[in-house]
Description:
Blueprint: H1 20-28, H2 33-78, H3 86-93, H4 98-106
Amino acid sequence: MGFKGDKYTWWNKRYGTSGVMERLDRVLSLPDAAERLEIIEDKINKLLQDQEIYWKQRSRASWLKWGEQLQGQQSVLDSVEPLITAEANESLIKEFSASGIAHALYHIHPTKAPGPDGMPALSTRNTGIS
């Protein structure tokens, strides 16, 4: 293969996978190949663990920074008066009724604002809901 330098080098400005299998065979034929592979595997696992810890700490730092900003804005939010009264909120969160749905359907313009199925309200008026 015409190696220059260390014959177990993975890079010598060669692209592609043409010599990879030959290089792997050379490494695996060494008497201490199993030990070397175990050491390499341990190093890779350590690097992956360090990387995971790094990103976890970085995300935590972002959340802490964002949380501090929210705490500063909490006093502003506490001073805002709610626009929805308790009575209006009760009517907004109550269960839907058939009569309420029928009332809404009959008040929609029949040929405007098609629903998610593409059909206009005209086609839903004759559903039998009352």
